[in-house]
Structures are given as C-alpha cells and as structure tokens.
C-alpha cells in the first residue's frame, strides 16, 4: 500500500508573518503579557449587538467550549460567528486572507504568487448551483455566521487581539464568499504533487524502477500517457501552490482514525464511536469546538473556526466522524501552447484561446496594486507556464465543481437523525473525500466513502496527461450510490485509518495511493481480540495505543545475526527483547526509530543514481521496505541477498548507535524515545525571547510514530501532525462522551483556555463533552448574554 498522498500536505493555512517587516519588538515579556490580557474578549455579562433579533445565551464550560442557546436559526449562527471570532479572530483573519488571496496586503511582495494561486483556485461556476449544492438553508446560515464575525470586528476595533497590534494590521469585514473559498479543499486533495514526482522519476529512472519504488494499491502498471513530454516536468510546476498552502511533502505521516462498534460489544448495550482526525499540530488548534442549540439544531463537536456548524460530533440522535479517503480528485494536464501566442493552446487539432482574467492585488509597501493575469484552459486554471518548451500546465480538480467548499456539507450532516437522512446529507459531501462513520441511538452503525470521484476511462491518473488530444478527459463522476459503504455489519465493528477501503472485487478505480495499513490493522487487532465488552476508557486507551506493527516485522530480522562488537550485541538484545511499544520512556523505541531511518536510506539509496537520491529520499513506503527486507532478492541486494541484507541491518544499527551516543549519551539504559520525539507549540509571531515567553507553549515528550494508532508523525523526530482533536461518543448517554482539542479553545495569549488542554493531551487524558443543559450549567465558568441592540440608543 502507498501512503495517502491526498493528505500529504499539512493543512497550514495560518500565515508565516514576516515580523521583521514591522518595527522590532521592544516590549518585555511582562508588558506583552499584560497587553494580551487587556484585550481578551468579554465572555461574561451582557453585550448588545446590532443584527440579533432575540437574546442568545453563551455558556463557556470549564474547558472553554461555548454552548450557544438561541431562539432562531439566524441568531444561532450569528452567535457562532461572534463567539468564534472572540476566541480565534487572528487565526480566522489569516485563513480568510489565505483563501481569498489577500495576503500581500499585509505581507508585501513575497505573498503575491501565493495570492495569485489562491485566486486561480476560486470557484467560477454558477453561484445558484453552488448554493443549491449545500443544505437548502446554507446561504442563510452562512450570511448569519458572517454577520456575527463582523459584529465582533466592529465592536473590537480599539481592542483587537495582540497579534494585530504587533503586526499593525486590521481585520477586514467578511462576506459570505469567505466561507466558499477552495484552498482548504485544495490542500486535502493534492494528487498532482505525486503526479509530478512520478513524472520526474520516470524521466530519470524509467517506469519499471519507479513502479518498484512507489508501489500502488492495488498494483497498477505505470504507463506514460501517449503524447506526454516528460522533460521539464519538475517541482517548479507546483511552486505557487506549495507556497500558497505550506510545503508539499510526499508522503506524509498525516492521517486519521475512526471506528465504531455496535451495542453487542459495549457495556452499555449501545454503540460507541471514536474519531481522531490527524492534522497539523498547531497553535492555535486547527479545530474549534462548539455546541449549537436552536430551532432544529442541537449539535456539539468540532469544525473549522471559519465555518458554521461542526464537522465531527453528534446531535440528539446520531454521532458521526471522519477520516480522509484516498479518492484521486486531481489531474495535471500538459497543454501545448502556440509558439507565437502562449495564450493559445491546442485541443483536438485546433488552437483555442485561453480564458484570461486580470486582477489587482494590493501589496503592502506599494502605492499601486499589482496586476496579475489568471489563465484558464478547458481543463482548469493554468498553474505554470513553460514558454521555452511551449507548454502550460492546467489543473483539473474537483474544486472547480459547485458545492466543493471544504466541509460545508456538514450543515446537512449535523441535522440527520437516521441512516437514510445521513446518506442524503453525505451525498452533498464532495471535498475533501472522507470515510464517514455513523452510529445512532437506536443501535445502528454504518460507514460510507463520500466525495466526488472522477471517472477516468482507460487511464490511471498516476502521471500528468497531455491535454491536446482529448483522450484523457473526465467522464463525469461516480454515482454516490456506487461508492463503498457498510451498514450494520454482522461483526458489529467498522474501522478506517486512511487505508485502502475498497472491497475485494470492487469494479471502480477511485485511487491508488493510500495510507499504510498498520494503524487500521492494530485497531482491528485490539477490537477483535477483546475478551470483554468495551467501555469509554477502553477506547481512550486504544486511541493512545503505541504498539508498532512494523517493528514486529523488522526487529525479528536481527535474531541470529552474528556480531562480535559487545555494544552491537547489547543493542540487538535491547531490540529483540523489546515489547514493540513506542512509549516515550522506552530506550528500545529510541533505538528502533533511528535504526529505521538509517535502514531506509541504506536500502534504497544504492538502488538509484546519487543525483536522483534527493528526489527518492523518504518516498518509498514502509511496506515496501519491509517487503524487501523480509524477502531479500538479488536484484536489490546482489548475488548473496540475505548476507547483504544482514550487513545493511548491522550497518544501520552501527550508525544509529553513533547518533544516539552523540544525542543521548553512551548509557543505553538512560535513552528515552521522548527525549528525541517531541511536539512543539510555537506561535507564528514568536521571534524573540519576549514574544516566545508570551506566545509559545511548553514542548512535550511524545510516544508513538506515524504508524501507531497514537499517530505522532513528523520529520526529524518532531511530531508535526497527529490527533490534535479526539472524540469518543457514548450513544447510551451523550454526557458520558469525552474529547480533547490541543492546545486549547482560545487563540488569544493570556486567555485561560489558550493552553489549558495541553497537559491533558500530553498525558492522554480528555474532558467531558457535555451535552445536556443540566450538565452544561453545572460546569459553567462564564455566561454571556448577547442581546439585540436597543432601538432607543
């Protein structure tokens, strides 16, 4: 199996602010801290606001989750927008600017290309079809949400969060279009990056070698599309998109887990559902938790702070969660352009004029805006032009279709009350593609794959395709009813972890790149081997499980390998007698992880020319490495493959010991995986000692890795992705449900909820996800009444 490229990019929409463009900070940490506290939003008492029709009650519990009670739907979502802005305005402003292509206004010329790309990705189709694709009342909800955001901005102009003061910027008022941008969906669907990589490697190594290094699941013969010119295809094609949405990384340790079991397997006799979406570990969190109660609404969970509703959680009748599905939702087209007019491209023997739009980008430090050209072929936006070779590269992706603003389908999902309604709501879910799991209070459980799946007749989508012949066109999308699904299976168990979810004999090719199956297999192993019924606490332990299935296969290869060096002998003993648990206090785990890194390099590097290694490094999957090492062949290891394999095992171990001696000392017994493997919580604006003291939070030692259920992946042993959010839902009593959202609900330094959930998260603990009004009131910490502004004033 291949790791899932459609989630190979960290969704870091928050912007790296160039603070050096502002005046150097001369304030002490104490001054900054006082300043941050002085502008915290009001979360108790009463606030009068224009735009409300009736009073809204907002109760924040001990963990910073706002529970919003409104008498009208419009007031409910007005309040959600207002409350989200109270906690996350800086983050929301950066995300909005990223999605709308307006970063250069505050960052200067360095952001022009980023803005240009975001504007290329904008939806340009029929707006009536766009709105109809979401819930019937989506427009009304979004307009109300935006009014709430703007209400907070208006009353806070003289006491904006400290980030605005440091950067000397002002938030703009929102329009409904801010919720319809496509960048959030783009970064979760990018198969184009792997197409470019494969094309580069095929040009340098040939299809056979690339197929061996970058295996597909199911196996698919790698064929160069007729008419594709491989020369000149490189990472420059995606440079603008990479800049627009953080670095491209192929593959990545990101992913998600979810599972649901029926009542026959739980102590309560009702289903339980667990979900931990894996995203970038960020400050503030990429998720925002909220409870929405109003006419037709009673839903609690987590979503994007910039969007109304929640994406994962539960209402009174059903619980739901998601993990990414590996549906291939992008294709890169190589267009042939006219030698004398690069705005014309060939299609079926004729020259066709590109559609050209000109836009003005405001740029900080410049008196006049910069004009940019946005070009489009029939296949989509032109993201790169190679005028020397008379080529342009256009991106065909599902985000050009109506209804593909990321996560907005949740507005329908939030109100489903049974499986039939859940199916109808899930059909609206187009981007990103997801494994949606389901449970209801009547005892039913289910799962389905949701998302637009392009139909490619006779071609795979693994490489870029020529756009001139008309041979490589999408033939619509797979009907929703033909995507995989499952309802009340006899096993009473459903689990997904970004692995290949297509059933045996499935007739459609929806993708070839999936996460390695290790997390899924471990989840299934624990559930199927249980000898008693499950409790919430069992699921909590499973979400933090750090057993390494790859280690179970790799470490035994060291048994029987002869070494004379005593230190090597001790290292082998440490590994082969290890329980294969990647706990943060484990010496063996530290040695294994460094050894694994060295092993991958020592096995794959000799297989390619040295000049190609930078492209290949980190690309072959762990499943490929395990396969080669467990069954060594002469084509990879020479005439005596087992001997050479064992030499590489020991060579890698020697190198690992050298590194660990330098980093952790000579005493193996004192090594700890958590001394190498940490999660950091650094703010974008922490650039000196004073700002670091105010904005940053303490780093924490971590166990696990990218292939354990407690997924803690990242480069250089730093956890950069994983479960910042976890939920476990108890269908027998919603008040028994638990959750965590690291590092806290608030994005405002100085708030008691800025980092209060980090200690819980670091220790594998949760807080109660309170649902009943009685429990909410009992745990209330702040009560805020939002009132319509009096007409007498």
Task: Give a written overview of the molecule.
This protein is α+β, with helices and mostly antiparallel strands. The protein has a domain at 549-581 and 585-676: Aminohydrolase, alpha-helical knob region (Penicillin amidase (Acylase) alpha subunit, N-terminal domain), CATH 1.10.1400. It contains 26 helices and 32 strands. The strands form seven sheets. An eleven-stranded mixed beta sheet has the order 1-32-2-3-7-8-9-10-18-19-23. Helix 2 packs across helix 6. The longest helix is centred in the first third of the chain and has 28 residues, at 73-100. The radius of gyration is 26 Å and the shape is globular.
The CATH class of the domain at 549-581 and 585-676, by name, is Mainly Alpha
How many β-strand runs? 32
Oligomer: single chain
Evaluate the radius of gyration.
26 Å
CATH homologous superfamily grouping of the domain at 549-581 and 585-676: Aminohydrolase, alpha-helical knob region
Whole-number mean pLDDT? 94
Give helix % range.
Answer: 25-40%
The name CATH uses for the topology of the domain at 549-581 and 585-676 is Penicillin amidase (Acylase) alpha subunit, N-terminal domain
User: What general form does the structure show?
Assistant: globular
Q: Major β-sheet, in short?
A: 11 strands, mixed
Give the distance, in angstroms, between the N- and C-terminal Cα atoms: 65 Å
Which percent range describes the beta-strand content?
15-25%
Strand order of the largest sheet: 1-32-2-3-7-8-9-10-18-19-23
Poorly predicted regions are 1-23, 246-253
* Total helical segments: 26
Structural class: alpha+beta
């Amino acid at each position: 199996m291949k790791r899932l490229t459609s989630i190979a990019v960290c969704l870091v929409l928050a912007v790296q602010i160039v603070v050096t463009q502002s005046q150097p900070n001369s304030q002490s940490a104490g001054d900054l801290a006082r300043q941050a506290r002085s502008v915290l939003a009001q979360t108790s008492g009463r606030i009068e606001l224009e735009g409300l029709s009736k009073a809204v009650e907002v109760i924040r519990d001990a963990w910073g989750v706002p529970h919003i009670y409104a008498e009208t739907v419009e007031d409910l979502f007005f309040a959600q927008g207002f409350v989200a802005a109270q906690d996350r305005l800086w983050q929301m402003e950066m995300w909005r600017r990223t999605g709308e292509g307006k970063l250069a206004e505050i960052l200067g010329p360095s952001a022009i290309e980023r803005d240009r790309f975001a504007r290329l990705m904008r939806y340009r189709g029929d707006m009536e079809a766009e709105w109809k694709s979401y819930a019937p009342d989506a427009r009304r909800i979004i307009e109300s949400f935006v009014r709430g955001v703007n209400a907070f901005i208006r009353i806070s102009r003289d006491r904006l969060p400290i980030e605005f003061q440091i950067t000397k910027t002002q938030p703009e008022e929102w329009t409904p279009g801010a919720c319809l941008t496509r960048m959030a969906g783009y970064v979760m669907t990018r198969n184009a990056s792997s197409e470019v990589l494969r094309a580069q490697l095929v040009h340098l190594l040939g299809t056979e070698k690339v197929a061996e290094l970058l295996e597909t699941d199911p196996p698919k013969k790698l064929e160069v599309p007729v008419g594709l010119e491989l020369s000149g295809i490189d990472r420059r094609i995606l440079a603008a998109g990479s800049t627009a949405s953080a670095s491209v990384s192929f593959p990545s340790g990101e992913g998600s887990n979810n599972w649901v079991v029926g009542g026959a397997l739980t102590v309560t006799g009702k289903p339980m559902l667990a979900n931990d979406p894996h995203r970038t570990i960020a400050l503030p969190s990429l998720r925002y938790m909220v409870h929405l109660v109003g006419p037709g609404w009673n839903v609690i969970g987590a979503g994007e702070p910039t969007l109304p509703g929640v994406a994962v959680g539960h209402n009174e009748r059903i619980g739901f969660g998601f993990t990414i599905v590996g549906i291939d939702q992008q294709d890169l087209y190589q267009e042939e352009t006219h030698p004398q007019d690069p705005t014309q491209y060939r299609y079926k023997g004729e020259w066709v004029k590109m559609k050209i739009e000109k836009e003005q980008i405001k740029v900080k430090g410049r008196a006049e805006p910069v004009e940019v050209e946005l070009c489009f072929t029939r296949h989509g936006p032109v993201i790169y032009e190679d005028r020397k070779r008379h080529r342009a590269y256009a991106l065909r992706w599902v985000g050009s279709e109506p209804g593909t603003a990321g996560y907005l389908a949740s507005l329908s999902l939030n109100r489903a009350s049974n499986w039939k309604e859940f199916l109808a709501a899930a059909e609206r879910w187009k981007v990103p593609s997801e494994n949606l799991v389901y449970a209801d209070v009547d005892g039913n459980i289910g799962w389905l794959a949701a998302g637009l799946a392009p139909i490619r007749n006779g071609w795979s989508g693994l490489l870029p395709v020529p756009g001139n012949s008309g041979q490589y066109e999408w033939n619509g999308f797979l009907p929703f009813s033909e995507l995989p699904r499952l309802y009340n299976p006899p096993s009473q168990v459903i689990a997904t972890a970004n692995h290949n979810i297509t059933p045996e004999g499935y007739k459609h090719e929806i993708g070839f790149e999936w996460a390695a199956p290790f997390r899924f297999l471990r989840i299934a192993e624990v559930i199927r081997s249980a000898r008693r019924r499950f409790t919430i606490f069992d699921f909590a332990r499973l979400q933090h499980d750090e057993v390494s299935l790859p280690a179970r296969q790799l470490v035994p290869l060291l048994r029987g390998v002869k070494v004379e060096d005593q230190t090597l002998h001790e290292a082998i003993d440490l590994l082969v007698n290890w329980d294969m648990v990647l706990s943060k206090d484990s010496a063996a785990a530290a040695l294994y992880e460094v050894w694994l890194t060295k092993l991958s390099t020592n096995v794959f590097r000799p297989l390619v020319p040295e000049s190609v290694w930078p492209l290949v490094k980190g690309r072959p999957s762990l499943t490929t490495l395990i396969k080669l090492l467990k069954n060594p062949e002469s084509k990879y290891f020479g005439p005596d493959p087992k001997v050479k394999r064992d030499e590489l095992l020991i060579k890698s171990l020697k190198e690992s010991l050298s590194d660990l001696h330098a980093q952790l000392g000579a005493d193996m017994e004192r090594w700890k995986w958590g001394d190498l493997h940490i999660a950091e919580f650094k703010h974008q604006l922490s650039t000196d000692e004073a700002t670091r003291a105010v904005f940053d939070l303490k780093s924490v030692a971590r166990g696990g890795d990218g292939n354990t259920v407690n997924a803690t992946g990242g480069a250089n042993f730093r956890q950069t992705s994983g479960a910042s959010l976890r939920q476990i839902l108890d269908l027998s009593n919603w008040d028994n449900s638990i959750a965590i959202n690291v590092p806290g609900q608030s994005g405002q330094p100085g708030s008691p909820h800025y980092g209060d959930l980090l200690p819980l998260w670091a220790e594998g603990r949760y807080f109660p996800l309170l649902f009943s009004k009685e429990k909410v009131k009992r745990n209330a910490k702040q009560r805020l009444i939002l009132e319509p502004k009096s007409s007498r004033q």
